[in-house]
Write a structure and sequence with these properties.
InterPro entries: Restrct_endonuc-II-like, tRNA_endonuc-like_dom_sf, UPF0102_YraN-like. By secondary structure, the chain is an alpha+beta fold. The protein has helices at about 10-25, 75-90, and strands at about 30-35, 40-50, 50-60, 100-110, 115-120. Strands 1-2-3-4-5 form a 5-stranded mixed beta sheet, sandwiched between helices.
Length: about 120
Amino acid sequence: MSNVKLTRKMLGALGEQYALEHLQALNYSILAQNWRCRTGEIDLIGMDGELLIIIEVRTRSGSTSFGMPQESINALKQQKVRETAYFYTHRHQLLDRQLRFDVISIVTDREGQLLTLDHIPNAF
C-alpha cells in the first residue's frame, strides 16, 4: 500500500465519498454535498421518497480507542446542523417537507480502505 498519510481533509472527503455511494445504493436522490451557509455546513442532503434527509458524516481512521466517529456529534453540533438545515429548507422552499437527521459513521484503515460504515437513520 501507499505510504501517503491521509490528512483530516482527505479522510473527511473519502468518508463522504463512501457515504455518498452508500446512499446512492439505497436509491436516495442526492440534492447537495457540503452545502454551506452562515450557520455551518451540511455534509450531504438527500431525498428518500418525499422525505428530506440531512446527513452528517463522521470518519475516523485506524483505532477506535477514542470512541466511534458518531460519538463526536455533541448537542452543540446537532443544533448547528438543525439551524443550517432550516436555512437550506427556507432557501430551497422545502419548509413543507418532513425532515430526518441521519448520521453515517465510517471507520477506515490508515490507508483509507473502508472497514465499517454504520448508517444511523433519525440519529437526532
